[in-house]
Amino acid sequence: MRILVTNDDGILAEGLLMLKRALEPLGEVFVVAPERPRSGSGHSITLHKPLRLHTVRLGDGSLGYSTNGTPSDCVTLGVSVVMNGRCDLVFSGINQGANLGWDVTYSGTVSAAMEGAIFDIPSVAISVCCGDDETPEYDAAFHFARKLAEVLRERRLPSHTLLNVNVPNCTMEQVKGVAVTRQGTRQYVDRVEARVDPWGRKYYWLTGSLANEEVPPDSDVAAIRAGKISVTPIHLDLTAEALLDELRRWPLD
Fold first, then answer.
1. How far is 62 from 100, CA to CA, in rounded Å?
2. Domain membership flag for residue 194
């Protein structure tokens, strides 16, 4: 099995190396990641400047590739250039921080897996749900990534579908189980903070805290709160199917 590993935390991120090590027993692993952190980049691609690949010595002494592009670019370059179009599985992560609910629309980690799904390659985004002030514990994510890759070797995902996996910040022994979930909601309040620079000019910092709201019991957010690993299937078709018939009755002609 030929596996592409990428992320949005950058080529030197600890989670990237942990994911590579988790998947190495299953086949040939190729690493292509951004040269710097690109968290929150969403599904952006680079059209306004050249993309370059550089070999990088990883923490275990092996070679990977860094690029000046986005996480989505990493998948495109990884599949098309580094792997010559022969890729069986794309794994993005292990991200330091949750990618739950509506966060998937911002996430470079999830968007890299989406790019893999566009190539119609089975793809997974995996994240550890630790806070900004917490030390990430990669043990559970490490073991679950390997287990999931083993399953995907035997069971193929539907076309243009990916799995978004969120793992509690704990060891494998502390995990309370695995839940197959739907995408929940995560809304932020007080998102813009106005500040003043030393010259008296205003600038703005995007921040915010999570709104305190109830979550559906079958959602990814609920699973993490219960100490479980959340596995959410996501497909690329964003059509609001329930609205189609009603919209056709609108006076739009």
1. 32
2. no
The reported pTM is: 0.93
Summarize pLDDT for 195-222 with one digit per residue, the tens: 999 999 999 988 766 666 778 899 999 9
Q: Which two tokens stand for residue 4?
A: 């592409």
Strand order through the sheet with 28-34: 53-57, 63-67, 28-34, 2-6, 89-96, 123-129, 161-168, 229-235, 178-180
The helix/strand/coil state of 146 is helix
Half-sphere exposure of 222 (CA within 13 A, CB side): 13
Instruction: Tally the domains of the chain.
Output: 1
d(CA 28, CA 84): 14
- Note down the domain range covering 99: 2-185+215-248
Burial of 111 (0-12, 13-18, 19+ CB in 10 A): buried
Residue 203 lies in a domain: no
pLDDT tens by residue, 13-25: 999 999 999 999 9
Which three-class secondary structure state does DSSP give residue 116? Answer: helix
**Ramachandran area for residue 85 (φ above 0: left; ψ -120 to 50: alpha; else beta):** left
Contact 94, 19 (CB under 8 A): yes
Q: Cα dihedral angle (39, 41, 45, 47), rounded to 10 degrees?
A: -110
DSSP secondary structure letter of residue 198: T
For residue 147, the domain's CATH number is: 3.40.1210.10
